[in-house]
Amino acid sequence: MRIKKDRLEHLIDFALVIQMLGVKSLNYQTLNEETLESYKSEARKSWGGTDAFYEDEQKTQDYTEEDWKVMNTKFMANFAEFGRLINKDPTSEPVMTE
Fold first, then answer.
1. Which residue among 8, 40, 56, 83 has its CA within the 20 to 30 Å range from the CA of 49?
2. In angstroms, rounded to a whole number, what is the distance separating the alpha carbons of residues 21 and 16?
3. pLDDT digits 0-9 by tens, 32-78
């Protein structure tokens, strides 16, 4: 539970920074192929046997570059929302429903 909380806090910090910088999208092309493969390998090792991992692989295997751009836009919108909620009471209605 503590690890999940720490990860969420890091994600929120990241969201605040990209919001302050006005970043509209992330460019994963700056990561080299070796780094990406390392991340994929780690994900397979951690979650490869789960239904969710299998479902995600099936769902994304045929994604085009445009599909990934759409996903990236949605991803960035989620981070921006984290940034807007950071100073609100965690038990407030807007935070609880997001």
1. 8
2. 9
3. 777 778 888 888 898 888 999 899 889 888 998 899 888 888 887 88
CA 1 from chain center: how many Å?
A: 18
Rounded Cα distance, 86 and 17, in Å: 12
List all residues 6 or more positions away from 95 whose beta carbon is below 8 Å from its beta carbon: 85, 88, 89
Angle between helix 65-85 and helix 2-21 axes, rounded to 10 deg: 100
